[in-house]
Amino acid sequence: MTTAPTPDLAINLANVEKTYKGKVRALRGVSMRVHRGEIFGLLGPNGAGKSTLVKILMTIVRPTKCEGALLGAPIGQKDTLARVGYLPEHLRFPGYLTGEQTLDYMAALAKVPSKVRKKRAEEMLELVGMTAWRKKKIGSYSKGMKQRLGIAQSLMNDPDIVLLDEPTDGVDPVGRRDIRNVMVEMKERGKSVLINSHLLGEVEMVCDRVSILVQGQVAAQGTLDELTDGGRRYEIEIEPATEQTPQKLFEGVAALTQAERPPIAPPPPSNAPPTKRPGAVIPVWRGELTTGEAAEFDGRTLRINTMDAKPIQSIIDALRQRGVVIRSLRPVRPSLEDLFIEAVADPETGKARAVGASQSSKKEAK
Fold this sequence. Notes:
By secondary structure, the chain is of the alpha+beta class. It is 29% helix and 28% strand. The strands form three sheets. A six-stranded mixed sheet has the order 6-7-8-3-9-10, sandwiched between helices.
């Protein structure tokens, strides 16, 4: 079964499943959409099913179940693959070939005409900063240089979408920046990029949207703004020397009541003063502003769950009137790493879920 073609989608997947021998469920009903002309990040811990999903798109792995389309055609249609670029995670090139010979060979496999291959190879080598090494044998390349060449070969057929599996693995900071620039340039040309990476900072800098897989299922998907909407806030850090209670300090602008936060450090030594013990319970005050926004104060920092700057003004005015020194005021948004850690955590225990794919239960196997 296939989903209806959608012109604005480069990838449109629904209910993708893959069960390997031993009842290992690598994918469990994955649905994912990648728009044309965007950079999409595919994230997840080891064994989450990311590479399996990419290999299904490339027809390297046969799915147990798959509904969807790639570039408007059913998954598995080989003619469509001529419009796809692919960088596997562990790509290997013959060490006796030069860089330009490798690109010519890989382009020939993709049925790029011979008259086009030479010019295309020159362009791609320049794009990834490998022109000076075009005549050198790959056996003399570093790992990062081979990765750059891998990026170049994935673009030799001028693809409409490129699937990059760990593209910056082993690449130095300058190389990672260059590869990011390549992805942005592809996007500007209207191409789509799907990047599978563990380097969350790299992904956060370039991706328009992300999908986080956990044990073969989509735990979160969307733009960073959409995924962080509930966690964005303002933080006001003050000089903690004030003797005023939080209730008095924020009187008229916020109503806070004392609560307790669990210990955030190992048990303290028995001879440590109560207020200095590293594992002591930290008192916090929770409540809301008079304008309705939820707030929390820990004696130093007031956190307000809003990205609207208007209600913050009255708090600043009140603190200044009471002679409080404001050390900083900053808008805060959860990072991609924060989203990732939250997505992989077990909702019951709060700990990271076990690494690897899910094992089918007897009930599921029936």
